[in-house]
Amino acid sequence: MNIISTLRQPRIFSYAIFDLALTFLAMWLLAPWLSKLALRAGVIIPEISWVIWALPLGISVHLLVGSMTPMTEHFLDLNGYYLLKIFILFLIVFGLRGIKVVS
Question: For 11, 64, 68, 95, which has the most beta carbons within 10 A of its beta carbon?
């Protein structure tokens, strides 16, 4: 078994803790550049908002590229996983706090 498979074994529900941690770490590292890019477009987006949006953006990107991860499948399932759907919607709304349009 390779190292990645070993790291992906610990799970919360059916989601690999390693994948979630890597997602948040990557977004935390990208957040300063994304905020600067948004500022050039005339929108002030706090860096923490990008970290909060890591999971909703991840689901969107996986849908765009056609990669069906367990979280993407669960989010699209019409007959269940309501707690996940509520949590993702909460993250979207909570991430909107602090956004300002520069005039």
Answer: 95
